[in-house]
User: Which sequence fits this backbone?
């Protein structure tokens, strides 16, 4: 886990939008998605619940954020 990955994770929690997070951090949206996917794989737990309408943080994601 790299510091930059945690920075992206924290920004995504605050924005609850992959595209807004990407724009604010000046990275591509696929980069944000890949970082989150890799964090979830590394921690072996989902950090977000994704749907077509919204993005919600899971309990594991909230614990990591705190």
Assistant:
């Amino acid at each position: 886990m790299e510091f930059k990955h945690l920075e992206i994770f924290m920004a995504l929690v605050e924005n609850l939008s992959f595209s807004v997070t990407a724009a604010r951090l000046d990275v591509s949206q696929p980069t944000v998605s890949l970082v989150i996917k890799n964090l979830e794989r590394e921690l072996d737990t989902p950090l977000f619940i994704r749907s077509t309408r919204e993005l919600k943080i899971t309990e594991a994601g909230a614990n990591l954020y705190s």
Q: What stands out?
A: Residues 7 and 25 are 9 Å apart (CA to CA). The beta strands are 48-50, 55-57. Helices lie at 3-15, 18-25, 29-43, 59-65. The two ends are 16 Å apart (CA to CA).
